[in-house]
Amino acid sequence: MYRRILLAYNGTTYATVALRQGAELARLCGAELHLVGIVATTGGFAIAQAAGPQDVWGLEQQHLRKALEAAAQEIAGKCVHLVSVIREGDPASEIVAYANEIKADIVVIGHRDRSVMARWLGGSTSQRLIQELRCSILIAEGE
Fold first, then answer.
1. In which order are the strands placed within the sheet that holds 81-89?
2. What is the CATH number of the domain that holds 90?
3. Which of 56, 111, 126, 136 is the least buried, fewest Cβ under 10 Å from its Cβ?
4. What domain range includes position 74?
5. C-beta of residue 84 within 8 angstroms of C-beta of residue 110
6. CA distances from 96 to 70, 73, 130 (A)
7. Chain center to CA of 106
8. Measured at the alpha carbon of residue 127, what is the angle toward residues 16 and 20, in degrees to the nearest 5?
9. Phi then psi for 3, rounded to 5 degrees?
């Protein structure tokens, strides 16, 4: 059914729900599981990088690296093949691009409800993925 599963992961509670569901799906299908973390270089992160003395993008990359390592340990033994990558850019664009590169059969993401104002200011990654992906999408909620 699914041979390549892409899971967007950032270490949040919502992403952890997606991780567990994506790992189980990969196990059931004998699929490759690709964990991708995105260092957002757009929106508020770009402003923070330009305005502050700290390397915001570097700190985010370190955070994602640790989160992906912890995720890989959590699901060790559940997947046939696990690949972890970190990309930089607009999260929705990077997820779509990586899904196309690996020819993902399905993308799994966590979801959190955001206010109308937050969606207006930052956009909705989930909404863009629904519009732009050329494969199935599983939006994991719960726990």
1. 81-89, 32-40, 4-8, 106-110, 136-140
2. 3.40.50.620
3. 136
4. 4-140
5. no
6. 24, 26, 10
7. 12
8. 15
9. -105, -30
**CA–CA gap between residue 25 and residue 27 (Å, rounded):** 5
The number of folded domains in the chain is 1
Tell me the residue type at 74: E
CA distance readout (Å), 108 to 9, 32, 34, 77: 9, 13, 10, 19
CA distance 14 to 41: 21
Query: 6 and 106 in contact (C-beta within 8 Å)?
Result: yes
Q: What are the start-end ranges of the E strands in 9-114?
A: 32-40, 81-89, 106-110
β pairing state of 106-110 and 136-140 = parallel
pTM score, two decimals? Answer: 0.84
The predicted-structure confidence for 52-100, as pLDDT tens digits, reads as follows 556 777 888 999 999 999 999 999 888 779 999 999 999 999 999 999 9
